[in-house]
Amino acid sequence: xxxxxxxxxxxxxxxxxxxxxxxxxxxxxxxxxxxxxxxxxxxxxxxxxxxxxxxxxxxxxxxxxxxxxxxxxxxxxxxxxxxxxxxxxxxxxxxxxxxxxxxxxxxxxxxxxxxxxxxxxxxxxxxxxxxxxxxxxxxxxxxxxxxxxxxxxxxxxxxxxxxxxxxxxxxxxxxxxxxxxxxxxxxxxxxxxxxxxxxxxxxxxxxxxxxxxxxxxxxxxxxxxxx
Length: 227
What we know:
The chain is of the alpha+beta class.
């Protein structure tokens, strides 16, 4: 299950593979990830993601986000630190065999990528902290996706699997270069005869963010499977 890289990554769009609300499309009646809320009506990220899903023959099920308050000299603003999306594949009846096949392909896609979690706990935390410190000005001229780092591929339940990675993006905006590092965790869930792709992406600001996102995607996957 793979989508092409989309240029709105600064706003939180996701890719399927390692390459790089009320009023929101499809969010009604779909389980909401813990601590998140439906995206606001007209959310640009939700609209763009829904369009990509439609073009690829999928069904956009929901957009969700969290926010923190940011006070500026002019006014208070809400800036999302975490986005979540759900998309369902359509056009056929899926089985556990299909889920197994997708997991096998995902493992093959990631086999040449640098695994983060193979390190001992101390060096694992140090690498996360170094990634966090690297956020800021960068010499890169355009939007690029730096080679992602694999954290884990897990099959914790017969009806879903999870893939967690660290993704760093560099983009140029108004003459300034900005580096964004995010924790990205995906789950593919077999619900009855339907395959649903869940994605949660959070700005990496603390090593604990990785475990938090992994916990959130696992809880969400179980809730979707039972819904």
